[in-house]
Description:
By secondary structure, this protein is of the alpha/beta class. Helices cover 39% and strands 19% of the residues. The protein has a seven-stranded parallel beta sheet with strand order 3-2-1-4-5-7-12, sandwiched between helices.
Amino acid sequence: MRSFVIGGAGFIGSHLIDLLVERGPVTAYDNMTVGKREFLGHHLDTGRVTLVQADALDLPALTAAMAGHDVVFHLAANPEARWGLERTRLDLEQGTICTYNALEAARLNGVPKFVFSSSGTVYGNVAEPCGEDDLGKLPISLYGASKFAGEAMLSAYVECFGLEGFICRFGNVVGPRGTHGAILDFCKKLKAHPAYLDVLGDGRQAKPYLHVTDCAAGLCYVLDHATGEKPAIFNLAPPDATTVKRIAELCVAASPSPGARIEYGGGSQGWPGDVPKSLVKPDKLAALGFRVRHTSDEAVRISVSEVAREVFTAA
């Protein structure tokens, strides 16, 4: 199997490639704005992975690079939802347009399978656990809107052009090689000013956190086992949630300054567009035979240790 991973040098993409190299050659396509060559270095040295540094907004380049592959994993997106508040075109470009380009390149090349990384943000501001059919409310962030649009685009390509499509709605993915997210943000803040940690919101925001190794394993499992649906849609997350307060406390405890005070900004939202509390139902994927190894709390605890080692031991 020849795999093409858009965003392959990034956080999730590089962990996915750790699994895909056992199945055949892999092309990692990445504009390297947040991706890092060192995430793939051990595979590049063996020749099992080819890195193409180019932008998914460049349809001709993307189409040329994708030729000859059997499956596309589209992971590229705006890595930080808050950035869309300052650059309102960011999610349109890095989300919606890049997803169209990826689908169109797959169509032009006759690539039969397409796996899209979506998000629980498509469910909108809903505190109750959401299943795959619970789309009663619209997204409230530009990031969520771009994922929602990407899902619709994929559905149309499946219907109109016979593409076999798979959609995985992630929880908040955490773990080593992270390029964004609360854990990395908190650890960097504590390294910069060890006496205190400032936290957006009141700390009671709670979301399901998914360890990146479970995320990569789930993507591969869906590709191997999902059949019948057009497209196949799955929540990929644990059923529980972890509060921001808990994450902040773990980051402080793992830092060189375990006595640092935590200062909360207040308010139920971390920022406009943030969903304060969310839960998803992973029952459909469990019925297919896959369960994540780590609960949300476990994923956070493990990830804090992993990210803290990366941040606090770095020069």
